[in-house]
Amino acid sequence: MVFTSRNLDWWCERGILALVLAILVFAPLAFGAVYGVAFLVVQVLVMGVAALWLVRLWGGHKPKLLWPPLTWAVVAFVLYAVGRYFTADVEYVARQELIRILVYAFVFLAVVSNVYDQEATELVTYTLIVVAALASSYAVTQFLHHSNRVWNLTSPYPSRASGTYINPDHFAGFLELVLPLALSFLMAGRVGVVTRVLLLYATLTIMGGLTVTFSRGGWVAATAGMLMLFGFLLCHRNHRLRALVVLMVLAGVGGFCTEHYLSNTVAFKRRVVKADENGPPVLDTQARLQMWGAAVQMWRDHPWWGVGPGHFDCRFGEYRPPGFQQDPAHAHDDYLELLADWGVAGGVIVLGGMGIFVFGLAKTWRHVRREEDDFGYGMSSRYAFFLGAVSGLFALAVHSLVDFNLHVPANALAGVAVLGLLASNLRFATKRYWVRARRPLQWALTGVLGGLVVYFSAQAWRRGGEIVWTTRADLLPKYSTEEAVARQKALAWEPKNYVNVYKVGECYLNQSKDGGDDYASLAQTALTFYAQSIRLNPYYAYCQLGSGSCLDWLGRHGEAEKYFGTAETRDPNNNFIVANIGLHYVQVGDYAAARQWFIRADKLANGQNQIAINYIYNICQPKLEQKASGQLPMSLFYNGKDN
User: Fold this and answer.
1) pTM above the 0.90 mark?
2) Which of 149, 325, 334, 578 is the most buried (most CB within 10 A)?
Protein backbone atom coordinates (compact mmCIF):
# COMPACT_ATOMS: atom_id res chain seq x y z
CA MET A 1 0.00 0.00 0.00
CA VAL A 2 1.35 3.41 -1.01
CA PHE A 3 0.99 6.02 1.70
CA THR A 4 -0.15 9.45 0.62
CA SER A 5 -0.97 12.46 2.74
CA ARG A 6 -4.66 11.64 2.41
CA ASN A 7 -4.59 8.01 3.51
CA LEU A 8 -1.97 8.76 6.19
CA ASP A 9 -4.34 11.38 7.56
CA TRP A 10 -7.17 8.84 7.49
CA TRP A 11 -5.14 6.21 9.32
CA CYS A 12 -4.05 8.69 11.98
CA GLU A 13 -7.65 9.81 12.46
CA ARG A 14 -8.79 6.18 12.81
CA GLY A 15 -5.92 5.52 15.22
CA ILE A 16 -6.89 8.46 17.41
CA LEU A 17 -10.50 7.27 17.42
CA ALA A 18 -9.37 3.75 18.38
CA LEU A 19 -7.28 5.05 21.28
CA VAL A 20 -10.13 7.26 22.53
CA LEU A 21 -12.46 4.25 22.41
CA ALA A 22 -9.84 2.20 24.28
CA ILE A 23 -9.78 4.83 27.03
CA LEU A 24 -13.58 4.85 27.27
CA VAL A 25 -13.67 1.04 27.49
CA PHE A 26 -10.73 0.50 29.82
CA ALA A 27 -11.37 3.20 32.43
CA PRO A 28 -14.89 2.10 33.51
CA LEU A 29 -13.91 -1.58 33.53
CA ALA A 30 -10.73 -0.94 35.58
CA PHE A 31 -12.50 0.15 38.80
CA GLY A 32 -13.21 3.58 37.28
CA ALA A 33 -9.45 4.15 36.86
CA VAL A 34 -9.29 5.45 40.43
CA TYR A 35 -6.16 3.43 41.21
CA GLY A 36 -2.70 4.55 40.16
CA VAL A 37 -1.92 1.68 37.78
CA ALA A 38 -5.20 2.04 35.88
CA PHE A 39 -4.76 5.79 35.49
CA LEU A 40 -1.21 5.20 34.23
CA VAL A 41 -2.66 3.06 31.43
CA VAL A 42 -5.01 5.92 30.56
CA GLN A 43 -2.05 8.30 30.60
CA VAL A 44 -0.11 6.08 28.18
CA LEU A 45 -3.12 5.89 25.83
CA VAL A 46 -3.37 9.69 25.91
CA MET A 47 0.31 9.88 24.96
CA GLY A 48 -0.50 7.67 21.96
CA VAL A 49 -3.26 10.07 20.93
CA ALA A 50 -0.82 12.99 21.15
CA ALA A 51 1.78 11.14 19.05
CA LEU A 52 -0.75 10.33 16.30
CA TRP A 53 -2.00 13.91 16.36
CA LEU A 54 1.56 15.07 15.79
CA VAL A 55 1.91 12.74 12.78
CA ARG A 56 -1.41 13.95 11.42
CA LEU A 57 -0.39 17.55 11.94
CA TRP A 58 2.72 17.23 9.75
CA GLY A 59 1.93 14.32 7.44
CA GLY A 60 -1.79 14.75 6.94
CA HIS A 61 -3.63 16.43 4.11
CA LYS A 62 -4.29 20.13 4.79
CA PRO A 63 -4.26 19.86 8.61
CA LYS A 64 -6.91 21.92 10.36
CA LEU A 65 -8.42 22.40 13.79
CA LEU A 66 -11.96 22.80 15.00
CA TRP A 67 -11.80 25.43 17.72
CA PRO A 68 -15.26 26.25 19.13
CA PRO A 69 -15.50 28.93 21.86
CA LEU A 70 -15.65 26.35 24.68
CA THR A 71 -12.05 25.37 23.95
CA TRP A 72 -10.92 28.83 25.10
CA ALA A 73 -12.45 28.19 28.53
CA VAL A 74 -10.73 24.78 28.69
CA VAL A 75 -7.36 26.30 27.77
CA ALA A 76 -7.88 29.14 30.26
CA PHE A 77 -8.50 26.69 33.11
CA VAL A 78 -5.45 24.61 32.13
CA LEU A 79 -3.25 27.71 32.19
CA TYR A 80 -4.71 28.70 35.55
CA ALA A 81 -4.08 25.17 36.86
CA VAL A 82 -0.45 25.31 35.74
CA GLY A 83 0.04 28.66 37.43
CA ARG A 84 -1.70 27.49 40.59
CA TYR A 85 0.50 24.38 40.67
CA PHE A 86 3.64 26.49 40.96
CA THR A 87 2.18 28.36 43.95
CA ALA A 88 0.66 25.33 45.73
CA ASP A 89 1.67 24.44 49.29
CA VAL A 90 1.84 20.66 48.73
CA GLU A 91 3.66 20.00 45.47
CA TYR A 92 2.93 16.27 45.21
CA VAL A 93 -0.84 16.65 45.58
CA ALA A 94 -0.94 19.64 43.21
CA ARG A 95 1.08 17.76 40.58
CA GLN A 96 -1.21 14.72 40.62
CA GLU A 97 -4.23 17.01 40.27
CA LEU A 98 -2.57 18.92 37.43
CA ILE A 99 -1.83 15.68 35.54
CA ARG A 100 -5.49 14.66 35.78
CA ILE A 101 -6.62 18.05 34.52
CA LEU A 102 -4.16 17.90 31.61
CA VAL A 103 -5.42 14.41 30.68
CA TYR A 104 -9.08 15.49 30.73
CA ALA A 105 -8.42 18.71 28.83
CA PHE A 106 -6.33 16.93 26.20
CA VAL A 107 -9.02 14.27 25.63
CA PHE A 108 -11.56 17.05 25.15
CA LEU A 109 -9.38 18.90 22.63
CA ALA A 110 -8.46 15.68 20.79
CA VAL A 111 -12.13 14.70 20.47
CA VAL A 112 -13.16 18.15 19.23
CA SER A 113 -10.50 18.28 16.49
CA ASN A 114 -10.17 14.61 15.52
CA VAL A 115 -13.28 12.64 16.50
CA TYR A 116 -16.13 14.78 15.29
CA ASP A 117 -17.79 13.17 12.25
CA GLN A 118 -21.11 11.33 12.50
CA GLU A 119 -19.59 7.86 12.20
CA ALA A 120 -17.12 8.55 15.04
CA THR A 121 -19.89 10.05 17.18
CA GLU A 122 -22.02 6.94 16.80
CA LEU A 123 -19.04 4.68 17.53
CA VAL A 124 -18.31 6.55 20.76
CA THR A 125 -21.99 6.43 21.71
CA TYR A 126 -22.43 2.72 21.04
CA THR A 127 -19.16 1.94 22.82
CA LEU A 128 -20.32 3.72 25.96
CA ILE A 129 -23.71 1.96 25.77
CA VAL A 130 -22.12 -1.49 25.37
CA VAL A 131 -19.67 -0.90 28.24
CA ALA A 132 -22.48 0.37 30.49
CA ALA A 133 -24.71 -2.60 29.59
CA LEU A 134 -21.96 -5.16 30.24
CA ALA A 135 -20.98 -3.53 33.54
CA SER A 136 -24.67 -3.39 34.51
CA SER A 137 -25.08 -7.10 33.75
CA TYR A 138 -22.14 -7.73 36.07
CA ALA A 139 -23.78 -5.53 38.72
CA VAL A 140 -27.10 -7.40 38.51
CA THR A 141 -25.19 -10.68 38.83
CA GLN A 142 -23.41 -9.34 41.93
CA PHE A 143 -26.74 -8.37 43.44
CA LEU A 144 -28.48 -11.68 42.68
CA HIS A 145 -25.57 -13.65 44.13
CA HIS A 146 -25.20 -11.31 47.16
CA SER A 147 -21.57 -10.75 46.20
CA ASN A 148 -19.46 -7.64 46.70
CA ARG A 149 -16.50 -8.99 44.73
CA VAL A 150 -15.31 -6.67 41.93
CA TRP A 151 -12.89 -8.59 39.73
CA ASN A 152 -10.10 -9.51 42.20
CA LEU A 153 -11.05 -6.97 44.90
CA THR A 154 -13.81 -6.62 47.48
CA SER A 155 -16.15 -3.66 47.60
CA PRO A 156 -16.82 -2.34 51.13
CA TYR A 157 -20.54 -1.94 50.30
CA PRO A 158 -22.35 -5.20 51.10
CA SER A 159 -25.89 -5.62 49.71
CA ARG A 160 -25.21 -2.93 47.07
CA ALA A 161 -23.89 -3.71 43.58
CA SER A 162 -21.03 -1.61 42.23
CA GLY A 163 -20.48 -3.28 38.86
CA THR A 164 -16.91 -2.78 37.73
CA TYR A 165 -16.37 0.08 40.19
CA ILE A 166 -15.58 -0.14 43.88
CA ASN A 167 -18.07 2.55 44.90
CA PRO A 168 -21.74 2.03 43.86
CA ASP A 169 -22.37 5.80 43.76
CA HIS A 170 -19.58 6.32 41.23
CA PHE A 171 -20.86 3.44 39.12
CA ALA A 172 -24.30 5.07 39.19
CA GLY A 173 -22.65 8.30 37.96
CA PHE A 174 -21.34 6.51 34.87
CA LEU A 175 -24.68 4.83 34.17
CA GLU A 176 -26.71 8.03 34.55
CA LEU A 177 -24.52 9.66 31.89
CA VAL A 178 -24.99 6.79 29.40
CA LEU A 179 -28.64 5.90 30.03
CA PRO A 180 -30.12 8.96 28.21
CA LEU A 181 -27.89 8.18 25.19
CA ALA A 182 -29.31 4.66 24.97
CA LEU A 183 -32.87 5.94 25.40
CA SER A 184 -32.52 8.72 22.84
CA PHE A 185 -31.09 6.41 20.15
CA LEU A 186 -33.83 3.89 20.97
CA MET A 187 -36.60 6.45 20.44
CA ALA A 188 -35.19 8.95 17.93
CA GLY A 189 -32.13 7.41 16.28
CA ARG A 190 -32.00 6.35 12.64
CA VAL A 191 -31.27 2.69 13.35
CA GLY A 192 -32.45 -0.70 12.12
CA VAL A 193 -34.91 -3.01 13.83
CA VAL A 194 -32.22 -5.33 15.25
CA THR A 195 -30.24 -2.40 16.61
CA ARG A 196 -33.38 -0.96 18.18
CA VAL A 197 -34.11 -4.25 19.93
CA LEU A 198 -30.53 -4.37 21.23
CA LEU A 199 -30.85 -0.77 22.40
CA LEU A 200 -34.02 -1.69 24.30
CA TYR A 201 -32.20 -4.57 25.97
CA ALA A 202 -29.23 -2.30 26.81
CA THR A 203 -31.56 0.35 28.23
CA LEU A 204 -33.33 -2.12 30.52
CA THR A 205 -30.00 -3.62 31.60
CA ILE A 206 -28.51 -0.21 32.41
CA MET A 207 -31.62 0.71 34.37
CA GLY A 208 -31.32 -2.57 36.26
CA GLY A 209 -27.66 -1.89 37.03
CA LEU A 210 -28.49 1.62 38.19
CA THR A 211 -31.28 0.31 40.42
CA VAL A 212 -29.16 -2.27 42.26
CA THR A 213 -26.51 0.32 43.15
CA PHE A 214 -29.09 1.75 45.58
CA SER A 215 -27.45 5.12 45.01
CA ARG A 216 -30.12 7.63 45.95
CA GLY A 217 -28.16 10.48 44.37
CA GLY A 218 -27.76 8.37 41.22
CA TRP A 219 -31.48 7.63 41.10
CA VAL A 220 -32.42 11.30 41.45
CA ALA A 221 -29.84 12.39 38.86
CA ALA A 222 -30.87 9.69 36.36
CA THR A 223 -34.52 10.66 36.83
CA ALA A 224 -33.63 14.30 36.16
CA GLY A 225 -31.77 13.32 32.99
CA MET A 226 -34.61 11.13 31.72
CA LEU A 227 -37.20 13.81 32.48
CA MET A 228 -35.20 16.27 30.41
CA LEU A 229 -34.95 13.76 27.56
CA PHE A 230 -38.64 12.85 27.63
CA GLY A 231 -39.53 16.54 27.90
CA PHE A 232 -37.71 17.22 24.62
CA LEU A 233 -39.28 14.22 22.87
CA LEU A 234 -42.80 14.89 24.11
CA CYS A 235 -42.57 18.36 22.59
CA HIS A 236 -41.76 16.82 19.19
CA ARG A 237 -44.89 15.57 17.42
CA ASN A 238 -43.08 12.79 15.57
CA HIS A 239 -41.66 11.31 18.79
CA ARG A 240 -44.49 12.05 21.21
CA LEU A 241 -46.34 8.73 20.94
CA ARG A 242 -43.18 6.63 21.00
CA ALA A 243 -41.88 8.54 24.01
CA LEU A 244 -45.16 8.01 25.88
CA VAL A 245 -45.15 4.27 25.15
CA VAL A 246 -41.52 3.85 26.28
CA LEU A 247 -42.14 5.96 29.38
CA MET A 248 -45.13 3.82 30.39
CA VAL A 249 -43.24 0.58 29.73
CA LEU A 250 -40.26 1.71 31.83
CA ALA A 251 -42.53 2.95 34.62
CA GLY A 252 -44.49 -0.32 34.60
CA VAL A 253 -41.39 -2.53 34.64
CA GLY A 254 -39.81 -0.40 37.35
CA GLY A 255 -42.93 -0.43 39.52
CA PHE A 256 -43.40 -4.20 39.14
CA CYS A 257 -39.78 -5.01 40.03
CA THR A 258 -39.82 -2.65 43.00
CA GLU A 259 -43.09 -3.97 44.40
CA HIS A 260 -42.40 -7.69 43.97
CA TYR A 261 -38.67 -7.95 44.52
CA LEU A 262 -36.64 -4.88 45.47
CA SER A 263 -38.90 -3.87 48.36
CA ASN A 264 -38.00 -7.13 50.12
CA THR A 265 -34.23 -6.64 49.94
CA VAL A 266 -32.05 -5.50 52.85
CA ALA A 267 -30.51 -2.63 50.88
CA PHE A 268 -33.94 -1.24 49.94
CA LYS A 269 -35.09 -1.31 53.56
CA ARG A 270 -31.91 0.37 54.74
CA ARG A 271 -31.73 3.08 52.10
CA VAL A 272 -35.34 3.68 51.02
CA VAL A 273 -37.68 2.74 53.87
CA LYS A 274 -37.01 2.80 57.61
CA ALA A 275 -36.90 -0.82 58.73
CA ASP A 276 -36.57 -0.03 62.44
CA GLU A 277 -38.47 2.77 64.15
CA ASN A 278 -35.68 3.14 66.70
CA GLY A 279 -32.91 2.91 64.11
CA PRO A 280 -31.13 5.68 62.25
CA PRO A 281 -33.04 7.70 59.65
CA VAL A 282 -32.99 6.59 56.02
CA LEU A 283 -31.58 9.88 54.81
CA ASP A 284 -28.88 11.17 57.16
CA THR A 285 -27.58 14.45 55.77
CA GLN A 286 -25.43 15.41 58.76
CA ALA A 287 -22.15 14.06 57.34
CA ARG A 288 -22.72 15.78 53.98
CA LEU A 289 -23.59 19.07 55.65
CA GLN A 290 -20.45 18.89 57.79
CA MET A 291 -18.22 18.32 54.75
CA TRP A 292 -19.96 21.08 52.81
CA GLY A 293 -19.59 23.45 55.75
CA ALA A 294 -15.85 22.75 55.86
CA ALA A 295 -15.57 23.42 52.10
CA VAL A 296 -17.47 26.70 52.41
CA GLN A 297 -15.24 27.81 55.28
CA MET A 298 -12.10 26.98 53.27
CA TRP A 299 -13.41 29.14 50.45
CA ARG A 300 -14.23 31.98 52.83
CA ASP A 301 -10.71 31.87 54.24
CA HIS A 302 -9.12 31.70 50.75
CA PRO A 303 -11.75 33.35 48.52
CA TRP A 304 -9.79 34.33 45.41
CA TRP A 305 -7.39 31.47 44.70
CA GLY A 306 -8.62 28.66 46.99
CA VAL A 307 -6.50 26.40 49.17
CA GLY A 308 -4.76 24.79 46.19
CA PRO A 309 -5.25 22.09 43.51
CA GLY A 310 -6.57 18.94 45.16
CA HIS A 311 -5.85 20.43 48.60
CA PHE A 312 -9.31 19.96 50.13
CA ASP A 313 -8.29 16.75 51.86
CA CYS A 314 -4.91 18.18 52.90
CA ARG A 315 -6.53 21.14 54.63
CA PHE A 316 -9.64 19.40 55.93
CA GLY A 317 -8.12 18.71 59.37
CA GLU A 318 -8.10 22.40 60.28
CA TYR A 319 -11.81 22.63 59.42
CA ARG A 320 -12.94 19.24 60.74
CA PRO A 321 -16.27 19.49 62.63
CA PRO A 322 -16.20 17.88 66.11
CA GLY A 323 -18.61 15.09 65.17
CA PHE A 324 -16.87 14.08 61.93
CA GLN A 325 -13.99 11.62 62.33
CA GLN A 326 -13.58 10.18 58.81
CA ASP A 327 -11.06 11.36 56.22
CA PRO A 328 -13.42 12.46 53.41
CA ALA A 329 -10.89 12.80 50.52
CA HIS A 330 -13.41 15.03 48.72
CA ALA A 331 -16.19 17.45 49.67
CA HIS A 332 -18.92 15.28 48.10
CA ASP A 333 -20.01 18.33 46.12
CA ASP A 334 -17.94 19.08 43.04
CA TYR A 335 -19.04 22.72 42.94
CA LEU A 336 -18.12 23.49 46.54
CA GLU A 337 -14.84 21.64 46.13
CA LEU A 338 -14.13 23.72 43.02
CA LEU A 339 -14.49 26.89 45.08
CA ALA A 340 -12.48 25.48 48.00
CA ASP A 341 -9.59 24.29 45.81
CA TRP A 342 -9.55 26.92 43.06
CA GLY A 343 -11.32 29.92 44.54
CA VAL A 344 -13.35 32.55 42.73
CA ALA A 345 -10.81 32.66 39.88
CA GLY A 346 -11.32 28.99 39.05
CA GLY A 347 -15.07 29.23 39.61
CA VAL A 348 -15.41 32.15 37.20
CA ILE A 349 -13.54 30.25 34.47
CA VAL A 350 -15.73 27.16 34.91
CA LEU A 351 -18.92 29.22 35.15
CA GLY A 352 -17.91 31.13 32.04
CA GLY A 353 -17.26 27.84 30.25
CA MET A 354 -20.72 26.57 31.24
CA GLY A 355 -22.28 29.75 29.85
CA ILE A 356 -20.36 29.40 26.58
CA PHE A 357 -21.45 25.76 26.36
CA VAL A 358 -25.14 26.57 26.86
CA PHE A 359 -24.90 29.38 24.29
CA GLY A 360 -23.33 26.92 21.84
CA LEU A 361 -26.14 24.42 22.45
CA ALA A 362 -28.76 27.06 21.72
CA LYS A 363 -26.95 28.02 18.53
CA THR A 364 -26.61 24.39 17.42
CA TRP A 365 -30.14 23.30 18.35
CA ARG A 366 -31.98 24.33 15.19
CA HIS A 367 -29.29 22.80 12.98
CA VAL A 368 -29.38 19.34 14.55
CA ARG A 369 -33.14 19.14 15.07
CA ARG A 370 -34.95 17.72 12.10
CA GLU A 371 -37.93 19.64 10.85
CA GLU A 372 -41.17 18.18 12.04
CA ASP A 373 -42.75 16.50 9.05
CA ASP A 374 -46.26 15.13 9.13
CA PHE A 375 -45.32 12.69 6.36
CA GLY A 376 -42.05 11.47 7.89
CA TYR A 377 -40.80 9.81 11.02
CA GLY A 378 -38.32 12.51 12.03
CA MET A 379 -35.60 9.98 12.85
CA SER A 380 -32.06 11.35 13.12
CA SER A 381 -29.02 9.93 14.89
CA ARG A 382 -27.54 13.41 15.04
CA TYR A 383 -30.63 14.68 16.86
CA ALA A 384 -30.68 11.58 19.10
CA PHE A 385 -27.08 12.10 20.16
CA PHE A 386 -27.68 15.78 20.87
CA LEU A 387 -30.64 15.05 23.17
CA GLY A 388 -29.03 12.07 24.88
CA ALA A 389 -25.70 13.83 25.45
CA VAL A 390 -27.31 16.98 26.85
CA SER A 391 -29.56 14.93 29.15
CA GLY A 392 -26.70 12.68 30.29
CA LEU A 393 -24.44 15.61 31.11
CA PHE A 394 -27.30 17.27 32.96
CA ALA A 395 -27.78 14.10 35.06
CA LEU A 396 -24.06 14.02 35.88
CA ALA A 397 -24.19 17.71 36.84
CA VAL A 398 -27.12 17.05 39.18
CA HIS A 399 -25.35 14.13 40.86
CA SER A 400 -22.26 16.29 41.35
CA LEU A 401 -24.26 18.33 43.85
CA VAL A 402 -24.02 15.48 46.36
CA ASP A 403 -20.97 13.49 45.23
CA PHE A 404 -17.59 13.80 43.51
CA ASN A 405 -18.19 12.03 40.18
CA LEU A 406 -16.00 14.54 38.33
CA HIS A 407 -13.04 13.36 40.43
CA VAL A 408 -13.58 9.75 39.28
CA PRO A 409 -11.39 9.42 36.14
CA ALA A 410 -13.68 7.08 34.20
CA ASN A 411 -16.71 9.34 34.70
CA ALA A 412 -14.74 12.50 33.97
CA LEU A 413 -13.25 11.00 30.78
CA ALA A 414 -16.64 9.81 29.52
CA GLY A 415 -18.08 13.22 30.36
CA VAL A 416 -15.39 15.23 28.55
CA ALA A 417 -15.62 12.92 25.50
CA VAL A 418 -19.37 13.50 25.27
CA LEU A 419 -18.83 17.21 25.95
CA GLY A 420 -16.25 17.40 23.15
CA LEU A 421 -18.59 15.71 20.66
CA LEU A 422 -21.37 18.13 21.62
CA ALA A 423 -19.08 21.14 21.30
CA SER A 424 -17.97 19.97 17.84
CA ASN A 425 -21.61 20.06 16.70
CA LEU A 426 -21.25 23.81 16.46
CA ARG A 427 -19.71 23.17 13.02
CA PHE A 428 -23.25 22.53 11.76
CA ALA A 429 -24.20 26.12 12.57
CA THR A 430 -21.14 27.91 11.14
CA LYS A 431 -17.75 27.29 9.54
CA ARG A 432 -16.06 30.17 11.32
CA TYR A 433 -14.49 27.94 13.99
CA TRP A 434 -12.39 25.92 11.55
CA VAL A 435 -8.73 26.96 11.67
CA ARG A 436 -6.20 26.01 9.01
CA ALA A 437 -2.98 24.77 10.67
CA ARG A 438 -0.35 26.82 8.86
CA ARG A 439 3.34 26.77 9.74
CA PRO A 440 3.33 29.04 12.84
CA LEU A 441 0.36 27.17 14.31
CA GLN A 442 1.90 23.82 13.37
CA TRP A 443 5.10 24.65 15.23
CA ALA A 444 3.18 25.94 18.25
CA LEU A 445 1.04 22.80 18.38
CA THR A 446 4.11 20.64 17.91
CA GLY A 447 5.70 22.26 20.94
CA VAL A 448 2.57 21.73 23.04
CA LEU A 449 1.96 18.13 21.93
CA GLY A 450 5.63 17.20 22.13
CA GLY A 451 5.99 18.79 25.55
CA LEU A 452 2.90 16.94 26.72
CA VAL A 453 4.27 13.59 25.55
CA VAL A 454 7.64 14.23 27.22
CA TYR A 455 6.04 15.40 30.48
CA PHE A 456 3.55 12.55 30.62
CA SER A 457 6.31 10.04 29.84
CA ALA A 458 8.53 11.33 32.64
CA GLN A 459 5.67 11.44 35.14
CA ALA A 460 4.38 7.99 34.14
CA TRP A 461 7.87 6.50 34.57
CA ARG A 462 8.25 8.20 37.94
CA ARG A 463 4.79 7.23 39.15
CA GLY A 464 5.11 3.68 37.86
CA GLY A 465 8.28 3.04 39.86
CA GLU A 466 6.67 4.48 42.97
CA ILE A 467 3.58 2.27 42.58
CA VAL A 468 5.69 -0.88 42.14
CA TRP A 469 7.60 -0.35 45.38
CA THR A 470 4.70 0.95 47.49
CA THR A 471 2.64 -2.05 46.40
CA ARG A 472 5.45 -4.35 47.50
CA ALA A 473 5.79 -2.47 50.78
CA ASP A 474 2.08 -2.87 51.54
CA LEU A 475 2.47 -6.66 51.28
CA LEU A 476 5.42 -6.86 53.67
CA PRO A 477 5.15 -7.22 57.50
CA LYS A 478 4.03 -3.91 58.97
CA TYR A 479 6.83 -1.69 60.31
CA SER A 480 9.45 -4.26 59.36
CA THR A 481 12.92 -3.42 58.07
CA GLU A 482 11.88 -4.85 54.69
CA GLU A 483 8.92 -2.45 54.53
CA ALA A 484 11.15 0.52 55.35
CA VAL A 485 13.62 -0.48 52.61
CA ALA A 486 10.83 -0.93 50.03
CA ARG A 487 9.32 2.45 50.85
CA GLN A 488 12.70 4.15 50.58
CA LYS A 489 13.09 2.61 47.12
CA ALA A 490 9.70 4.10 46.28
CA LEU A 491 11.01 7.46 47.52
CA ALA A 492 13.94 7.15 45.12
CA TRP A 493 11.35 7.26 42.32
CA GLU A 494 9.06 9.85 43.92
CA PRO A 495 10.67 11.80 46.77
CA LYS A 496 7.75 14.24 47.15
CA ASN A 497 5.16 11.75 48.42
CA TYR A 498 4.83 12.94 52.01
CA VAL A 499 2.64 9.99 53.07
CA ASN A 500 5.31 7.50 52.03
CA VAL A 501 7.98 9.53 53.86
CA TYR A 502 5.80 9.50 56.99
CA LYS A 503 5.34 5.72 56.76
CA VAL A 504 9.10 5.21 56.61
CA GLY A 505 9.37 7.26 59.82
CA GLU A 506 6.69 5.05 61.40
CA CYS A 507 8.70 1.95 60.51
CA TYR A 508 11.83 3.25 62.23
CA LEU A 509 9.97 4.50 65.30
CA ASN A 510 8.26 1.15 65.85
CA GLN A 511 11.55 -0.71 65.33
CA SER A 512 13.11 1.61 67.92
CA LYS A 513 10.34 0.82 70.41
CA ASP A 514 11.08 -2.89 70.00
CA GLY A 515 14.22 -2.21 72.02
CA GLY A 516 17.82 -2.99 71.24
CA ASP A 517 21.09 -1.16 71.58
CA ASP A 518 20.41 0.97 68.51
CA TYR A 519 17.00 2.23 69.66
CA ALA A 520 18.23 5.85 69.90
CA SER A 521 19.74 5.75 66.41
CA LEU A 522 16.54 4.30 64.94
CA ALA A 523 14.44 6.95 66.68
CA GLN A 524 16.70 9.70 65.35
CA THR A 525 16.30 8.27 61.83
CA ALA A 526 12.53 8.32 62.32
CA LEU A 527 12.75 11.99 63.36
CA THR A 528 14.62 12.77 60.15
CA PHE A 529 11.85 11.26 58.02
CA TYR A 530 9.11 12.97 60.03
CA ALA A 531 10.87 16.30 59.51
CA GLN A 532 11.07 15.64 55.77
CA SER A 533 7.37 14.81 55.66
CA ILE A 534 6.56 18.05 57.50
CA ARG A 535 8.50 20.02 54.89
CA LEU A 536 6.61 18.32 52.07
CA ASN A 537 3.20 18.87 53.68
CA PRO A 538 3.09 21.14 56.74
CA TYR A 539 -0.66 20.48 57.11
CA TYR A 540 -0.31 16.72 57.68
CA ALA A 541 -0.90 16.50 61.43
CA TYR A 542 0.31 12.91 61.71
CA CYS A 543 3.88 14.01 60.88
CA GLN A 544 3.83 16.38 63.84
CA LEU A 545 2.28 13.67 66.01
CA GLY A 546 4.98 11.19 64.99
CA SER A 547 7.73 13.67 65.82
CA GLY A 548 6.24 14.31 69.25
CA SER A 549 5.87 10.59 69.98
CA CYS A 550 9.44 9.98 68.88
CA LEU A 551 10.80 12.71 71.16
CA ASP A 552 8.75 11.39 74.06
CA TRP A 553 10.26 7.96 73.50
CA LEU A 554 13.73 9.52 73.68
CA GLY A 555 12.78 11.32 76.90
CA ARG A 556 12.89 14.78 75.30
CA HIS A 557 9.45 15.78 76.55
CA GLY A 558 10.06 19.52 76.42
CA GLU A 559 10.86 19.38 72.70
CA ALA A 560 7.88 17.08 72.08
CA GLU A 561 5.46 19.65 73.50
CA LYS A 562 5.61 22.01 70.49
CA TYR A 563 5.01 19.17 68.00
CA PHE A 564 1.91 17.98 69.85
CA GLY A 565 0.70 21.58 69.97
CA THR A 566 1.17 21.96 66.21
CA ALA A 567 -0.57 18.62 65.56
CA GLU A 568 -3.55 19.80 67.60
CA THR A 569 -3.61 23.08 65.64
CA ARG A 570 -3.54 21.24 62.29
CA ASP A 571 -6.38 18.85 63.21
CA PRO A 572 -7.98 19.99 66.48
CA ASN A 573 -11.05 17.74 66.35
CA ASN A 574 -9.36 14.48 65.44
CA ASN A 575 -10.01 12.06 68.32
CA PHE A 576 -6.91 9.97 67.51
CA ILE A 577 -4.61 12.99 67.70
CA VAL A 578 -6.26 14.29 70.86
CA ALA A 579 -5.90 10.85 72.51
CA ASN A 580 -2.19 10.76 71.60
CA ILE A 581 -1.70 14.16 73.21
CA GLY A 582 -3.22 12.59 76.32
CA LEU A 583 -0.60 9.85 76.09
CA HIS A 584 2.09 12.53 76.01
CA TYR A 585 0.87 13.94 79.33
CA VAL A 586 0.78 10.44 80.82
CA GLN A 587 4.45 10.05 79.96
CA VAL A 588 5.37 13.35 81.61
CA GLY A 589 3.31 12.40 84.68
CA ASP A 590 0.65 15.12 84.38
CA TYR A 591 -2.35 12.84 84.87
CA ALA A 592 -4.83 15.67 85.43
CA ALA A 593 -4.05 17.16 82.02
CA ALA A 594 -3.96 13.71 80.43
CA ARG A 595 -7.42 12.93 81.82
CA GLN A 596 -8.90 16.06 80.25
CA TRP A 597 -7.40 15.22 76.84
CA PHE A 598 -8.74 11.66 77.05
CA ILE A 599 -12.20 12.89 78.01
CA ARG A 600 -12.16 15.21 75.02
CA ALA A 601 -10.96 12.41 72.69
CA ASP A 602 -13.74 10.11 73.86
CA LYS A 603 -16.31 12.85 73.39
CA LEU A 604 -15.10 13.49 69.82
CA ALA A 605 -15.40 9.74 69.12
CA ASN A 606 -18.95 9.65 70.54
CA GLY A 607 -17.87 7.38 73.36
CA GLN A 608 -16.14 4.89 71.05
CA ASN A 609 -12.47 5.63 71.85
CA GLN A 610 -11.56 2.58 73.91
CA ILE A 611 -7.97 3.73 74.48
CA ALA A 612 -9.20 6.98 76.03
CA ILE A 613 -11.76 5.18 78.20
CA ASN A 614 -9.13 2.71 79.41
CA TYR A 615 -6.65 5.47 80.33
CA ILE A 616 -9.29 7.60 82.06
CA TYR A 617 -10.56 4.90 84.42
CA ASN A 618 -7.64 2.49 84.73
CA ILE A 619 -4.65 4.84 84.82
CA CYS A 620 -5.39 8.56 85.20
CA GLN A 621 -8.13 8.40 87.81
CA PRO A 622 -6.31 5.90 90.11
CA LYS A 623 -3.12 7.96 89.85
CA LEU A 624 -4.96 11.16 90.77
CA GLU A 625 -6.71 9.44 93.69
CA GLN A 626 -3.40 8.07 94.90
CA LYS A 627 -1.87 11.53 94.69
CA ALA A 628 -4.73 12.96 96.69
CA SER A 629 -4.56 10.29 99.42
CA GLY A 630 -5.50 11.60 102.81
CA GLN A 631 -8.01 13.98 101.29
CA LEU A 632 -11.53 13.41 100.02
CA PRO A 633 -11.55 10.74 97.33
CA MET A 634 -10.98 12.32 93.95
CA SER A 635 -13.81 10.24 92.50
CA LEU A 636 -16.23 12.66 94.16
CA PHE A 637 -15.10 15.32 91.73
CA TYR A 638 -15.42 13.18 88.61
CA ASN A 639 -18.29 11.57 86.83
CA GLY A 640 -17.79 7.90 87.47
CA LYS A 641 -18.23 5.32 84.74
CA ASP A 642 -21.65 3.69 84.82
CA ASN A 643 -21.55 -0.02 85.45
Assistant:
1) yes
2) 578
